[in-house]
Amino acid sequence: MLDIHTISILGCGWYGFALAENLVKAGYTVKGSSTSIDKFKKLEDEGIKPYQVKFESDSESYQDDFFKSDLLIISIPPKRSSGEAGLYPSKIQRIKAAIQKAGVKQVLFISSTGVYGDHNQEVDEDTEPKPDSESGKAILSAEKILKDQKDFAVTILRFGGLIGPGRDPARFFAGKKNIPNGKAPVNLIHLKDCIGVSNAIIQRKAFGYTFNACADTHPEKMKFYTLTAQKSRLEIPEFIEELNEWKIVTSRYLDKVLEYKTSSL
User: Fold this and answer.
1) Are 153 and 208 in contact (CB under 8 A)?
2) Which of 74, 113, 209, 99 minimizes the C-alpha distance to 149?
3) pTM of this prediction?
4) In a 3-state reduction of DSSP, which class is residue 146?
5) Reduced to 3 states, what is the DSSP secondary structure of residue 162?
């Protein structure tokens, strides 16, 4: 694998921006993308070189220099609010073409454990994904698009539900009533582990893999969210004490390949 000095991050959102900050401090040259130039100052203030990059299912707009890097990290999940799932694979197809045109050789794609669906089982990276949501289906299609080529090495990193600064899990259900599936296990990951796993992949040049990344504990939804609401002094949510569809996400390869262990909830 190639040495990594310059890293481009396509999508400097909650995770992408935090990772970019971390990588700059570690001494990498980091290029960060935003669809809006309004975010440029925030990026520049952290030593991140800003680029306006837009990919849609039927159009694109970017500077060639953004893709001139040793590693491209793609962190642009389908927007749930806009019903983008159906168009998402076409967007990824355009990004793939840009990667090939620029000659990028190493890619990290931020995926989701939503590709597995809830089929009442424990899943790991060797489990065949069977998504049961439109976003899960779209993300799995994107994974396949990026893997179906021989021009670059791609690692798929499937995160659980994201929590951390600005994403207090206590706020997810605070004050809500009759929340179904209260006894289902949760599959979450803290931002510090998102960054930790990403760094381990970069440092070990672990490209060509698929990794699941979740906290190593999976408490019941009702217990976890009740406790977090209490800690944050928010209104306690009320769950229906039942177990319907569920999954527990584990990893066979985080420890084996990266020697990384995620923290507990």
Assistant:
1) yes
2) 99
3) 0.97
4) helix
5) strand
